[in-house]
Design a protein that fits this description.
By secondary structure, this protein is an alpha/beta fold. It folds into two domains: 134 residues, no CATH class; 369 residues, 3-Layer(aba) Sandwich (Rossmann fold), CATH 3.40.50.200. The protein is built from 14 helices and 26 strands. It is globular, with a radius of gyration of 23 Å. The relative contact order is 0.13. Secreted tripeptidyl-peptidase which degrades proteins at acidic pHs and is involved in virulence.
Length: 569
């Protein structure tokens, strides 16, 4: 493996040797080649790169203030979500930024396409030779040692001095694809079995079988989730799909026939696609993650209109390209879904701070417009999205973003306890937001010196909430099987929020939108506190669950009746 210092020295020499690079200033860089990758050699100058550039947003601080203003129950403007145009005013680059970037693009013969409604993201394709010229760098081929996957990236790049303060970042450049990113966040499929759900369940009677097998009826009993059909057609629930994970309608029909006999087995979902995404209905193409997500949203959020959003796979961009595109796709809509659940994620350290900030701000935009954004927290305990060796705790992304809701996992029914795989911890990129400052401080005080030095004590803590995450029964390719993971928990909690939104809209009120200020204030008492279990990793027992919020199960698991009261119904 070539040393990083040698690579950077070569890049510096290259930049000095290029006449076009004389007014370039370093913009972003990596300190090291990401773990698991090694340098193969220079990229072919003819290789086409699909580039995205982000312009500096005009007023992200104003957007954040507006988001909290409409999302905090004590605010006079609570629930008065912003319109599409109002949000775009905070995000749209200034006229000076647009002029500067467009002039630079024109000088280099580049025609860009607007990728976001506010105009802060542009895209274009250029050969490696031109990218090296205009960014004063050298692109190389890097190989992931474990998988053999190759990618073209750089360790640093520069931009013209006149674009400083106008051009925020160039993507993907230093953002390496994570081979474990956008993997379905589930641990394993256990032995197949045919299970009949228990009958006549009530919230006061959870059958003992639910300790071994989770079905919609178990979750309805555990959390008091009603079976009463939703009535508001304007209330929409979105389910993200990536990496050619296809949601099979025949599997959904079989699932409903087995586990929701009180509703029509023909109940199905709508489909939206982007980036050449599709949703094959070949039985062999059924995806475990996609089937899980649609079966437990449709199977719990009775009659809430549900849309499966299938994002095409882009092997060059890696996972983050799809994350960026789905949010811009929804921001373009006049009426995006009121809830979006995503059961994919990756380690925070695989994402540059600039990209992480831009994605987080995109979640703030959707939240300000009234969308609750939920992500599974991950399945590696304190070692990241998936279990891996580590010396210090590995936060996951986007769970560390303060403008979305992270969902962890529990197991057992009497009482519930933290699932050992439930990813949780503290972001290294984002500070502790005000809405959870008191909860985090209380936990850290109770934790004492345990795991001292292994995590960022001033970071945004996650997950925010949790639900069951083990032994979920699903149907894949016509067969019943079981899965575990926080990806079971996110669609479960999304269904709870979607049903609350249905009641709110029916009462003439606004949907909940960005949840966290509500969850940590008037909503906190509507959760069952989980006080046992931990999330091991990095040769430690991880974080222990304790009274109050903790970085394993968050505030705990939902009680639907109490949540109804908390939202004023």
């Amino acid at each position: 493996m070539v040393s990083v210092k040698l690579v950077l020295a070569c890049l510096f020499s290259l930049a000095l040797s290029k006449p076009t690079a004389r007014n370039l200033l370093p913009h972003e860089s990596l300190e090291d080649i990401p773990a698991g990758f090694q340098l193969v050699g220079p990229a072919s100058p003819d290789t086409t790169l699909k580039m995205r550039i982000a312009l500096v947003q005009s007023d992200p601080a104003g957007l954040e203030a507006a988001l909290y203003d409409v999302s905090t129950p004590s605010s006079a403007n609570y629930g008065q979500h912003l319109s599409k145009s109002e949000v775009e005013k905070f995000i749209a680059p200034t006229a000076d930024s647009v002029q500067a970037v467009n002039s630079w693009l024109a000088e280099n013969g580049i025609t860009a396409t607007q990728l976001s409604p506010a105009g802060d993201w542009l895209g274009f394709e250029i050969p490696v030779s031109q990218a090296e010229d205009i960014f004063g760098t050298q692109f190389s081929v890097f190989a992931h040692q474990a998988t053999g996957m190759q990618t073209v990236r750089t360790l640093s790049y520069s931009i013209p001095a006149e674009l400083q303060g106008h051009l925020d970042l160039v993507f993907p450049t230093i953002n390496f694809p994570d081979p474990n990113a956008n993997l379905p966040v589930f641990r394993h499929a256990v032995s197949k079995r045919d299970v009949t759900p228990a009958a006549n369940l009530t919230s006061d009677a959870v059958p003992s079988s639910c300790a071994d097998t989770i079905t919609p009826a178990c979750l309805q009993a555990l959390y008091g989730i009603p079976t009463t059909p939703a009535t508001q057609s304007s209330n929409q629930l979105g389910v993200s799909g990536f990496i050619e994970q296809f949601a099979n309608q025949a599997d959904l029909k079989t699932f409903l026939s087995k586990f929701r006999t009180d509703i029509s087995s023909s109940t199905t979902f709508s489909l939206e696609t982007l980036d050449d995404g599709s949703n094959s209905q070949n039985a062999r193409d059924a995806g475990v993650e996609a089937d899980l997500d649609v079966q437990y949203t449709i199977g719990l959020a009775t009659d809430v209109p549900t849309t499966f959003i299938s994002v095409g796979e882009d092997t060059q961009d890696g996972s983050l390209g799809g994350f960026l595109d789905i949010i811009n796709f929804l921001l373009e809509q006049d009426s995006p879904p009121q809830v979006l659940t995503t059961s994919y994620g990756q380690n925070e350290n695989t994402v540059s701070r600039s990209v992480a900030n831009n994605l987080c701000n995109a979640y703030a935009q959707l939240g300000a417009r009234g969308t609750s954004i939920l992500f599974a927290s991950g399945d590696g305990g304190v070692s990241g999205s998936q279990s891996a060796s580590c010396k210090t705790f590995v936060p996951t992304f986007p769970s560390g973003c303060p403008f979305m809701t992270s969902v962890g996992a529990t197991t057992g029914i009497n009482p519930e306890t933290a699932a050992a795989f439930s990813s949780g911890g503290f972001s290294n990129y984002f500070g502790t937001p005000s809405y959870q400052a008191s909860a985090v401080a209380s936990y850290l005080q109770a934790l004492g010196s345990t795991n001292s030095g292994k995590f960022n004590t001033s970071g945004r803590g996650y997950p925010d909430v949790s639900t069951q995450g083990e032994n979920f029964e699903i149907v894949v390719d016509g067969e019943t099987e079981g899965v575990d993971g926080t990806s079971c928990a996110s669609p479960t909690f999304a269904s709870v929020i979607a049903l609350l939104n249905d009641r709110l809209i029916a009462a003439g009120q606004s949907p909940l939108g960005f949840l966290n200020p509500f969850l940590y204030s008037t909503g906190a008492s509507a959760f069952t506190d989980i006080t046992s279990g931990d999330n091991p990793g990095c040769n430690t027992n991880g974080f222990p669950a304790k009274a109050g919020w903790d970085p394993v199960t968050g505030l705990g698991t939902p009680n639907f009746a109490k949540l109804l009261t908390a939202v004023g119904l």
